[in-house]
Amino acid sequence: xxxxxxxxxxxxxxxxxxxxxxxxxxxxxxxxxxxxxxxxxxxxxxxxxxxxxxxxxxxxxxxxxxxxxxxxxxxxxxxxxxxxxxxxxxxxxxxxxxxxxxxxxxxxxxxxxxxxxxxxxxxxxxxxxxxxxxxxxxxxxxxxxxxxxxxxxxxxxxxxxxxxxxxxxxxxxxxxxxxxxxxxxxxxxxxxxxxxxxxxxxxxxxxxxxxxxxxxxxxxxxxxxxxxxxxxxxxxxxxxxxxxxxxxxxxxxxxxxxxxxxxxxxxxxxxxxxxxxxxxxxxxxxxxxxxxxxxxxxxxxxxxxxxxxxxxxxxxxxxxxxxxx
Length: 325
Known about the structure:
By secondary structure, this protein is α/β, with parallel strands linked by helices.
């Protein structure tokens, strides 16, 4: 692995870390999210059929997963290209693209976007949550899954020679299913061979992140090179957050721009505002975790693009950084 050591593997090849610039560690540029469709509230079916009107924009922000068309981000590549050019203009350098098997990963499109915009794009290896696993995937051994993940980094993925640069986002639910546990063990084994970062999508329960870390550690994973995503919708109690932070993973607050009253996947979760996210980061910094924090937007639906009145990929650099300062 000596030729990869100390380098960042983008869809266009290896670069030095110093070339990355400002980096969003959890975004999507081309994917589908149909696996997580949630039926609209009773009486709103007609809105779902014709959602992209000005009068429906607020509804779409509150119910982004209740419109099938909104979940087809891969239809918006032209708009994504313009978004990336805007991101670069305000100081953005790199996007870590977390689309894995199960979310319609398209590395060829990512490579073209990188060429067209000059933004570094890092592809993700591995598999998403259980309900996107095929029967073939479920039947594989840990060793077989390890070989696939490793090959996606060393040789290329999805029948291309385009290599992934991270493992993830590796998806888990709560409780973690047997297929997901097997995937986590394969992830740890692949990471032990490769030395590359791992990015985790934890289940929507405050106990989920620590349980994922336990499984990874027992399988030989490197927690110091592991990113725990979506903490802003997962751990809210400060003492619990500090206990988790002690485990040593990177702490990712990656839903900047997402504010909704009712989070359909777990109604017990009160989605924080961006101001609350900033306060959480300030708390973590005060406790000494500044170097373990990463941030992003996790854009994965159409309504969050500026084309449809959303915040786009520039939101953190244009709006959140001044608030942080």
